[in-house]
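Hey, sorry to bother you again with one of my protein questions. A protein chain has come my way and I'm curious about its shape. I'm sending you its amino acid sequence along with the backbone structure tokens. I owe you a coffee for this, so here goes:
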Amino acid sequence: MLATLIPLFDDKMSVCAYSVFARKENHFLNPEMEGGARYDGAGTVHELEVVSSMGMSMLSGGKEVFVPVNQFSVFAEISLQCTVPANKVVLLMDNSITPEPNYVKRVKELKMQGYKLAIRKLPISSFEPYKEILNQCDYILLNHAKIDIEKAKIYFGKVYPKIKLCAVNVDTKEQYDMLISHGGYDLYEGGFFRMPVRESETEVNPLKVNYIELLNVVNAPDFDLTDAADVIGKDPALTISLLEIVNRMALNSEITSIRHATAMLGQKELKRWINTAVTKELCADRPTEITRLVMIRAKFAENLAESFEMSLLGQELFIMGLFSAIDIMLGKTMKEALDMVLVPKDVKLALLDNEGPFAPVLNFIKRYEDADWTEISRLMVLGNMDMTKIYDAYLSALRWYRDLFPVTVTG
């Protein structure tokens, strides 16, 4: 199976929910499954496996997660497959679920069980026939290019006042700006939001300069631990974080200084910790989705090393993923940002020119994040990659992020 998380945003570019996109089979290897895949494992909601595996704490602030169901899986024993709170799960239906009595009854049952409901791929002509199902829905996903939002606001405000409108296929900043200026939508989803961007800064603030200095120290060949310790000592938050990590390691010895702490970690672990901790700080004034995306992308890249026959280059691939949004972190162009930090040559080639040995890994990850399963399937066949290993690599990255930055789930 393949699966990824797609964020849904509000008009302030804050992540409000995620949608799980999954495919069970590689249709290039099993072409006969493409038309009939939906019927295989009809009693299983495969996307719930992803949600249950990673846990709700993986989703920033315990956000809701949209999980697709079809005309068969809607009748599954969903409560037995779902290990997260029902009120955090939005069961996403499509027009394969018709407004017939057996479906209407099942939808009402799921609502009574505490699940939230959403529907997509519903043409305007079906709004009235679907009245009983729409009355149970919390969200409706609309293709903004095929809907008159002014008329939709009036219609839904009058007939279904509790339903939230979600614009899908929003792929450019221009489309987004136009939609929010008109209002009416509660959530937005589209390619534009895979890497949310805000206005650039002309200068990098002093604290970020300190972080960049630290990145350059630890990414230099055979760096000096004392140099890293001296830069860490300039930032109280990093100092506290470092001491907390080392104190867990040194149960029977006293840590006497920051230099002592860095020596305890050693070059390899210190480098890994600094790259992740500093990246989090660089993202601190940006949408939290960027932190989530680059951290998961970094670990996913490292986990893919074996599949791309780069087992010895996992650390470099990790850095590539981590710095893939360095332009947004610093409010610079990618070239300007990479001129400020020290990164391996192949990482720079991939990020700046989409060239070199690491570029295929980065392109694969971006396609995966977009749930472009057709292209991902093709690349797996060409590279003789095992789908289970790819899926495990992604789930492992999700769990790593969950454990790295645990959050408290509310409500």
